[in-house]
Amino acid sequence: MESQKEARTLQEPVARPSGASSSQTPNDKERREGGAVPAAVALDAEADDDSADGLWELPVEPAERRPECTRCSRPQKVCLCPFLPAHPLHISTHLYIIQHPAEENKVLRTVPLLAACLPQDKCKVKIGRRFSEERDPELSTVCRKSGTLILYPGAEAANLEEFILDSPVYPSTIIIIDGTWSQAKDIFYKNSLFRHPKQVQLKTSISSQYVIRMQPTNRCLSTLECAAVALSILEKNNYIQETLLRPLQALCSFQLQHGAQIRLSKEHLLKNGLYPKPMPKNKRKLRKMELLMNSVQI
After folding, report:
1. Could you report the per-residue pLDDT of 242-252, keeping only the tens digit for each?
2. What average pLDDT score do residues 272-277 get?
3. I need a labelling partner for 290 at 20 to 30 A (CA). Which of 16, 20, 147, 178 fits?
4. What pLDDT does residue 15 have?
5. Would you say residue 184 has pLDDT above 90?
6. Closest Cα partner for 114 from 123, 104, 106, 105?
7. What is the SS3 assignment for the chain?
8. CA-CA distance, 67 to 280, in Å (whole number)?
9. Which residue has the higher pLDDT, 182 or 98?
10. Residue 293, pLDDT score
């Protein structure tokens, strides 16, 4: 009987059950004007208005997040602490990570792994896009010190290994910007503070082991990898690089075992005709693609 009521046409309106409200509802009006009304809506019209309104007042429960490890910031079921050093590495260099806000909540971010390997007083993470002397006096003071470097591959950047050989003051602090390449570029050029430290870059032949995230070129490294190479050079200790890369290797291995795929660089895909998206129509973006294909640093 119920299915027959739902299947009736508009010319044969559904009979109201005894005791139902006789007040006109918006659905009644739609039926009189000949508008098509889904069966589910017709049934709702027969329900008590107060009961229906009450459903909208029910509280929405937020999605429950999985418990996280307090050290590596990974979900406890996939904790990477077994791959971290038993004790924070002993280093003399101070590391400042300038993190773009968009990176803070990414699931596969590498900065928490980096911070978990280093002493708290040697690794500081500052989140934001704009910094000034008024907003962050500490960072302003650090940027103006002669022993501070910023790892940014600009036109004026010196090779880190060569720079420390000739520098009259041995570097005590290094700043690294954490974000996509466009985000890092935006942060660097829109914050005058970051023009005070000496710019350095890494001239290394190693390929990124962060294979689950696409990089622009074959020479691009993740934030953790940049820190690992830079600290091993400044501290003159290759063990630091090996130790810092171990949790990254474990993270990528775990993801690949559970369905993730190796992500080749955009440069590799373009050069081999494998890039899955159409070439952009925007001239500026198209020019960037052409530079990548010709291995020109952008």
Report:
1. 999 999 999 99
2. 76
3. 178
4. 45
5. yes
6. 123
7. CHHHHHHCCCCCCCCCCCCCCCCCCHHHHHHHCCCCCCHHHHHHHHCCHHHHHHHHCCCCCCCCCCCECCCCCCEHHHCCHHHCCCCCCCCCCEEEEEECHHHCCCCCCCHHHHHHHCCCCCEEEEECCCCCCCCCHHHHHHHHCCCEEEECCCCCCEEHHHHHHHCCCCCCEEEEEECCHHHHHHHHHCCHHHHCCEEEECCCCCCCCCCCCCCCCCCCCCHHHHHHHHHHHHCCCHHHHHHHHHHHHHHHHHHHHCCCCCCCCHHHHHHCCCCCCCCCCCHHHHHHHHHHHCCCCC
8. 41
9. 98
10. 55
Structure tokens of 283? 């001239």
First to last CA, the chain: 71
Give per-residue pLDDT as tens, 30-51: 444 444 444 444 444 444 555 5
**How many residues would you count in the chain?**
298
